[in-house]
């Protein structure tokens, strides 16, 4: 009678193939996470740019100035929370809050205006009502991805770009 002798264990080729498959899956997951983070920042940037465009349009349509005030988190970094106020000719009233908004970013800085946490849109020109250098650049970042929103002081034109 003949006995069969089976070897126990894996061959070197089998181990290399399994290792290559695991490495390929790891790389794919890592790349997809960085793409998701970049796209998420893009969505948050579009949300803020859309709100700014809406505020500019409201200033022109209602003939009132509107103020955007960002909440401060630390010395110069803004936390992504902001409040929109309608400015009456008599000034800002407690009931003049149009809305409180929040975007989910790691940080936000008004680059052209260090130390400034607010700016307003003029109802006559649609431009900015402050002594902020032209243009006002708002930098946003989240998990290594960066984006800028640019507002032209004289016209209020708003554009954004991913960096």
Can you put this structure into words, describing what you see?
The protein has 163 residues and is α+β, with helices and mostly antiparallel strands. The chain has a single domain (12-162), classed as minor pseudopilin epsh fold (3-Layer(bab) Sandwich), CATH 3.55.40. It is built from one helix and eight strands, in the order H-E-E-E-E-E-E-E-E. The chain has one helix at 12-62, and strands at 65-72, 78-87, 97-102, 107-110, 118-121, 136-142, 145-151, 158-162. The protein has a four-stranded antiparallel β-sheet with strand order 3-2-1-5, with helices on one face. Strands 4-6-7-8 form a four-stranded antiparallel β-sheet, covered by helices on one side.
Topology, element by element:
Elements: H1 12-62, E1 65-72, E2 78-87, E3 97-102, E4 107-110, E5 118-121, E6 136-142, E7 145-151, E8 158-162
Antiparallel strand pairs: 1-2, 1-5, 2-3, 4-6, 6-7, 7-8
* Structure summary, number of beta strands: 8
Could you name the CATH class? Alpha Beta
Q: Tell me roughly what share of residues is in helical segments.
A: 25-40%
Largest sheet: 4 strands, antiparallel
Enumerate the strands of the largest sheet in spatial order, edge to edge or round the barrel.
3-2-1-5
């Amino acid at each position: 009678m003949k006995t069969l002798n089976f070897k126990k264990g894996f061959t070197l080729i089998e181990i290399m193939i399994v290792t290559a498959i695991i490495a390929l899956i790891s790389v794919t997951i890592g790349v997809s996470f960085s793409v998701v983070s970049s796209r998420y920042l893009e969505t948050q940037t579009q949300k803020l740019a859309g709100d700014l465009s809406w505020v500019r349009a409201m200033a022109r349509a209602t003939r009132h100035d509107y103020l955007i005030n960002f909440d401060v988190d630390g010395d110069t970094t803004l936390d992504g929370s902001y409040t929109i106020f309608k400015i009456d000719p008599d000034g800002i009233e407690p009931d003049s809050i149009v809305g409180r908004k929040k975007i989910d970013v790691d940080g936000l800085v008004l680059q052209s205006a260090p130390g400034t946490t607010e700016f307003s849109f003029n109802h006559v020109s649609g431009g900015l009502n402050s002594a902020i250098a032209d243009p006002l650049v708002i930098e946003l970042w989240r998990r290594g991805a960066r984006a800028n929103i640019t507002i032209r002081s004289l016209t209020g034109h708003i554009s954004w770009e991913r960096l």
